[in-house]
Amino acid sequence: MKLGKIAMGFSEPDMTPMIDIVFQLLTFFMIAINFENTKADERVKLPKDVLAKPPAVKPEHELVLNFGYQRDESGVRVNSIPEVFYNERYIEVRQISPDLDQERRVMERIHGTEVIKDVTVLIRADSEVPTGLVQELIKKCQEAGFSKFSLRAMAEEL
Amino acid sequence: MKLRNRTTGPSKVEIPMAPLIDIVFLLLIFFMLNLKIVSPEGNFNINMPIGAPTAAAAEQNLPDIKVSLRSDREGRLTEMTLGSKNLGNDDAAFERLNQEILTIIGRPGNPLTKEVEVEIDADYETQYKYVVKAISKCTGRFDPGSKQIARYVEKIKFSPPHKPKA
After folding, report:
1. What domain range includes position B106?
2. Selection from B103, B86, B90, B88 nearest residue B138 by Cα
3. CA-CA distance, B164 to B73, in Å (whole number)?
C-alpha cells in the first residue's frame, strides 16, 4: 500500500463547522447582552416585583438616580444614612439640589429649555431605604423643575 | 493584454479565512466579557405634578382610595390600611389589598381605572420595598397561569411626607 501522497501533502483542517459554532456563539452573546442596564448600579438592591416589566416605550429623556446605602463586600452597611450615588460621589438627599440644578442646565443646553417637562426621573432606590427619604428626593427633584417620576423595581419570575 | 489565467476556465477562488476568524473571535470575546446576567428592570410611574394638588379627581366624585402604611422605627411594616379598613401587616395583607382594589374598580380594564387615583401614605421610616409592593398590588395582578398582567389602577401618587419619628 502506498502512503506517499498523504504523508507528503500539507493538509488544511476544515474550518466550516468551527466558524458555524463561533457565529452561533457570537449571535447568542450579541442578543443576550443588555446595554440598557449600563446605568444600573449594582450597589443598589432594588425591590423585586412580578409586575415590574420593562416599559414598551422608553422615555426620550431620562435622569437615573441611584439611591442606596454604602455597603462593604459582604453587604453590610458602612453608613447608616442612605445616599445618592451620583458621578462616583455619595451625596445625601438634603445636599443634592446643586447637582440636580446642574443636571437641568446641562439638559437645557443640549435639548432646549422646554426639555425639562419631558424628562423622566428614574428612581432606583434600595429596598430598605426609608420611604420618607425617597419622597424627599422626589421633592428636591420637583424643586429643580423635574415633574415626571418613575420608580424602578427588578423583575421577579414566578 | 493577455489574460492567461482566464483562458484555463473558472478556478475556485479561495477566501482568506484567517482574518475573518480573527475578527469574529475578537467580537466573541468582547460580547462574552460584557455579558452581565441581570434580571430586567421595570418601572412604576407615579403621578407627582408640581405644586397644584390634583383637583381633577375630586371634581369627578370618584372614590378616593388611600393606602396607608404604618411602620415601626426600623421601617418594618406594622399596619396597612385601605381607607379605614385594616389589612394587617403580612404577605396576606398585600393579597387582601389586591382583592379590595379589584372590588373597587369592578373589573380590570374598566374605563374607571384610568381616572381613579390611589394615594400612598407611608410613614417616614417605612422600608421602600413595602411601598413598591403596595403600588404593585394597586396597579395590577400577574396571573401565573396565562402569564398575563391584569391592569388595575394606573395613577399612583404619594401623600405629603411625614416627619420622622422622634
Report:
1. 63-158
2. B103
3. 9
Distance from CA of A149 to the nearest CA of B (A): 6
ipTM of this complex prediction, to 2 decimal places: 0.76
**Tens of pLDDT along A78-105?**
888 899 988 888 899 889 999 999 999 9
Residue to substitute from A31, A37, A51, A117, interface B, most B β-carbons within 10 A: A51
Residue that has been written with the C-alpha cell 441611584 in this structure: A66
* pLDDT above 50 for A55: yes
pTM of the predicted model, to two decimals?
A: 0.76
Q: Domain for residue B50, yes or no?
A: no
Domain membership flag for residue B30: no
Q: From the CA of A69, how many Å to the nearest CA of chain B? A: 13
- Per the model's pLDDT, the better-predicted residue between B61 and B93 turns out to be B93
Assigned domain for B75 exists: yes
Total structural domains within chain B: 1
Q: Residue B109 — left, alpha, or beta (φ > 0 → left; ψ -120 to 50 → alpha)?
A: left
DSSP A151: E
- Write the CB contacts of B162 (distance below 8 Å, at least 6 apart in sequence): A132, B122, B123, B124
Q: Report yes or no on B52 lying in a domain.
A: no
